[in-house]
Design a protein that fits this description.
The complex is a heterodimer of chains A (about 400) and B (about 290). Chain A is of the alpha/beta class. Chain A has helices at about 20-30, 45-55, 70-80, 90-105, 135-140, 155-170, 180-185, 255-270, 270-275, 295-310, 325-335, 350-355, 375-385, and strands spanning about 5, 15-20, 35-40, 60-65, 85-90, 110-120, 125-130, 150, 175-180, 190-195, 200, 235-240, 275-280, 285-290, 315-320, 320, 340, 365. Chain B is about 35% helix and about 20% strand.
Chain lengths: ~400, ~290
């Protein structure tokens, strides 16, 4: 992995008052993103607007495509053209992107997609918050594959995690998702952008061996193949079909097994390096609240109240949502009475907690269909119940 | 027994342009796609293009398999999406010339929206569309190009819809170069591909090609030779013809030729010109050729 300092051209060093959407655009520019293809959709549009405003002074492309299908597909093309690329969307647009997210996974293409979640299904609540796409991001495209998804809880983290998303996408040659939500996306807070020489960005895993020996899908030691770009004289082939190390289609069960397991293994076997979470007062906790995004900030109020009432409650905030921190949840399940999982959906991540806990500790869902955040009292009630 | 004289293995002149380790191809005998591929490789042979700066993108379908056989940087994308894929590729690396090689169903059915916008933007790319009047890979279903009254597996009592006229659509959307040929016009197809490769902006070359296994069999039109005979008897070369007059009826007359060859600024040219005007020296130009 080759780490370099950020290109100062894209870095707006200083303390700013930004919303999460803008912070995502600034994170992308700081990370070296020079190609953005997108389609307007509330509540993510501000990221596209910010990028369109800034990129002429940095040098790069902003293109508003005809739809989200075109946007994601243009990203894949642009990544193979050598750029760091991103798009941003919300529920309906995210659904449209699903097929080509699969293509990006199959072609092992580094790219970043931010989903500023709103209430669904369908057109749902365009202007109001939801967290209903957490399973879709993991499973939405057909077939078996693995992706990486991060969840910011503040504009500052929108900036920081966008840089991390680009770095992870380059390290693992995989689409990385920033699963924000309308509240975090539209919340204005202080965002500190460090000087460029304090921002580490990961360069693409470029191949530099002999031209005639290049195999686009031959896994390296870390399971991730080397990449080249169009125009460099390798005359390589890549396809969405099941393929061998050469990138040539091979339509049989044996190659399918090799190819699909590879797509999965390169993430699952490196999961410990990808997973990040934030814990608080977890060691002696009877109850652990597991949350992510805006809900973690609402849950924090409930946790404060519960602690005042004498309940030993810890928190685990998911920063990486996928791959899921299975080992940590399994460990905690042995020690705690219960998990409380507030989500702005009717239960998505709670199922993962249940799976990892494997019956050792119940996972209590505090559901909310979206449109607004939880009342902390509802989470508090669940904590109190769980502590009994 | 006489000793065979040693001589070099005869080499097909197109071998340099094909992935010979993937030959034989999957196309049926009598299919027209290979003819268009030959014209394409012939155009590459005759052009002075740096082949390392030429990329090819296909979608899905019979013609969608072309990218897999051409020895360039080649991308086999999803159904209907080669144009946005090529858009990203071109804009990310403006020194590339990008060719989209795909079928009528891919480009004008599922991918129709992308076609009209890429033409409107005058995105610098060459679109070669092999039009065989049906969805062949899936077994001969009705397509947006199927002539009215033709019989297709999902129009078993005949097609009652009106097909797209591809050159008319391309013209209306602002393409810089538009031509239509049949598989019979191999030298003219080659010449059009050469011209389009040299042209900046959005080019469409439609090549009408026989689908012997499905379209022709279902409509009892005979074999490949019969279809070429039909092309021979019914295609009329009319360069510069009014694109409103280019509809193709079932087994009817086909007007072919070069219809549009005009200059319009490309997407990148428009972007750079406009931004320089709007932002002056603060603008960082993108992808301009030295």
């Amino acid at each position: 992995m080759k780490k370099v300092k950020a290109d100062p051209k894209g870095v707006l060093t200083g303390a700013h008052y930004l919303d999460g959407d803008f912070a995502i655009a600034e994170g992308a520019l700081a990370a070296g993103c020079r190609f953005f293809a997108g389609y307007p959709i509330t509540p993510s549009t501000e990221t596209a607007e910010r990028f369109a405003e800034r990129i002429p002074f940095v040098g790069g492309i902003f293109i508003q495509m005809e739809d989200e299908i075109a946007s994601i597909t243009a990203l894949i093309g642009a990544a193979w053209g050598g750029r760091k690329v991103m798009t941003v969307t919300s529920g309906p647009g995210f659904s449209l992107m699903m097929e080509n997210i699969g293509l990006a996974c199959m072609m092992e293409t580094p790219l970043v997609i931010a989903n500023v979640q709103r209430g669904g299904p369908s057109t749902g609540l365009p202007t109001l918050v939801g967290q209903g796409d957490m399973m879709q991001v993991r499973w939405g495209s057909h077939g078996d594959y693995q992706i990486i998804a991060l969840s910011p809880d503040s504009p500052q983290e929108c900036f920081d995690l966008t840089i991390r998303a680009f770095n992870l996408s380059e390290i693992y040659r995989v689409p990385v998702f920033i699963m924000a939500d309308e509240c975090v996306g539209h919340m204005h807070e202080k965002v500190v952008i460090p000087p460029a020489d304090q921002i580490e960005v990961v360069e693409r895993k470029w191949y530099d061996g002999p031209k005639d020996k290049y195999l686009p899908y031959k896994p390296d030691k870390d399971l991730v193949p080397f990449m080249v770009k169009a125009g460099d004289g390798y005359r390589f082939h890549t396809t969405g079909l099941t393929h061998d190390e050469r990138g040539y289609p091979v339509i049989n069960a044996e190659c399918q097994d090799w190819n699909v397991r590879h797509l999965s293994d390169k993430i699952t076997k490196n999961a410990d390096k990808i997973i990040k979470y934030e814990e608080d007062q977890i060691d002696k906790a009877d109850v652990v609240v597991i949350s992510y995004g805006i809900t973690s900030r609402v849950a924090y109020r409930a946790v404060q109240l519960a602690r005042k009432a004498g309940i030993k409650v810890g928190t685990l905030r998911l920063i990486t949502v996928w791959p899921f921190p299975e080992k940590r949840i399994a460990e905690l399940a042995k020690k705690v009475k219960a998990f409380v999982v507030p989500e702005l959906n009717l239960g998505q991540i709670v199922h993962e907690v249940e799976r990892c806990s494997a019956g050792q500790a119940p996972a209590v869902l505090v559901s909310h269909c979206g449109g607004w955040v939880h009342d902390p009292e509802d989470i508090l009630k669940a904590i109190k119940e769980a502590a009994k | 027994m006489t000793k065979e004289t040693e001589r070099p293995e005869p080499k097909n002149p197109v071998e340099d342009f094909l992935r010979m380790d993937r030959i034989p191809h999957i196309w049926c005998s009598g299919c027209g796609i290979g003819v268009v591929v030959s014209s394409f490789t012939d155009a590459l042979r005759k052009s002075s293009f740096d082949l390392n700066k030429l990329a090819i993108v296909s979608g899905i379908g019979c013609t969608g398999r072309v990218a897999g056989y051409i020895k360039l940087d080649s991308f086999h994308s999803t159904h209907g999406r080669p144009i946005p894929f090529a858009t990203g590729l071109k804009l990310a690396n403006p020194e590339l010339k990008v060719v989209v090689f795909s079928g009528d169903g891919d480009i004008f059915g599922i991918g129709g929206n992308h076609f009209i916008h890429a033409a409107r933007r005058n995105m610098d790319m060459v679109v070669i569309c092999v039009n065989n009047f049906n969805y062949a890979m899936t077994g001969g279903q009705v397509a947006p190009t199927s002539p009215t009254d033709a019989n297709l597996s999902t129009a078993p009592y005949g097609n009652f819809e009106h097909p797209f006229s591809l050159p008319y659509l391309a013209d209306a959307c602002g393409a810089s170069y538009v031509a239509r040929w049949t598989c019979l016009h191999i030298r003219r197809v080659t010449k059009s591909i050469q011209e389009a490769l040299d042209k900046k902006g959005f080019s469409l070359i439609e090549v009408i090609a026989p689908c012997v296994t499905l379209y022709a069999r279902r409509n009892r039109l005979g074999d490949g030779l019969n279809l070429l005979k039909y092309y021979y008897d019914n295609s009329v070369i009319q360069h510069g013809a009014d694109t409103r007059t280019l509809d193709i009826g079932y087994q009817g007359k086909m007007i072919v030729g070069k219809f549009i060859d005009r200059e319009r600024p490309t997407f990148l040219e428009s972007m750079n010109t406009h931004m320089k005007k709007a932002l002056g020296d603060k603008y960082v130009p993108y992808g301009e050729q030295p």
